[in-house]
Amino acid sequence: MRIVFFGTPEFAVPTLDRLFGSSHRVVGVVSQPDRPRGRGQQVTPSPVKRRADGHAPIFQPTRLKDEEFLGAVRALEPDLGVVAAYGRILPQVLLDLPRLGMINVHASLLPRWRGAAPVHRAVIAGDKETGVTIMRVVLALDAGAMLRKVTSPIGSDETSADVEPRLATLGASLLVDVVDALATGPIPEEAQDESLVTYAARLERRESQIDWTRSAAEIHNRIRGLQPWPLAAAILNGKRTALLRSEVAEGASFSDAAPGTVTAVQADAIVVVTGAGALRITEVQVEGRPPMAMRAYLNGRRVNAGDRLAPLPEAP
User: Fold this and answer.
1) In this predicted model, what pLDDT tens digit does every residue of 1-31 receive, in sequence order?
2) Which among 22, 86, 160, 250 is placed 20 to 30 Å from 116, CA to CA?
């Protein structure tokens, strides 16, 4: 089949790779416009654009209803549209162009976690399992019928950055299986149960703030889920410090210190009191420095029992 592909970030690259290696033809790739990225805010192409360069025509429209862009897609005569983390809602006029419509690679077990940040919200919520759903693209947010699913466990210490690449690989394989099946005719589709819907809101910088009155398990999940951005953080030794790895301190004994207080300093961790239980912090990143194990951090900095992990200053 002739496929037009919509995608932008690294998550979408394995799917595009699998399509390039399949029996189908990617006749066009649509990615978001080049934007400033990274610490230096250099204007760089998206991962999907870099992968597609030299393999298929690339389009980066600023307006999806632009007649010139719509005409270019129409001229490709696509049989099917494939979407993987493109990052924008597609208008109906665009959805109607491929002969067989459009399908999407969504990183959750729908109808749980519709929206922009399904992997992160699943980890933050402490979900034990996630997966990928191949679904029809409709105007309503991630509400289309489901064609196939694949599940994957979430380890108790895995971060979003650990889980997402695995889902990208699983989703790529599943997507090609679905495309192969669609090439032979219609396949079963299952409507989503609207009573089971949850939403995965886009992450915001303000979510870095840690509420130490929450339980150790909740904070641990938040630390795991806010990676690689915006990262859970606090002020330690006067500097903004991202907390990268943690463990619930099972059976830890501590005083009646206020939540956020360091109750013990170990060789490879600091133990912090929370609203319920305690948390071992084992890896951190001081602002402007690379990540480091707590053992290395403690080699050059003093932390004492009774110190507080202060809240981040309010954003202006």
Assistant:
1) 999 999 999 999 999 999 999 999 999 999 9
2) 22
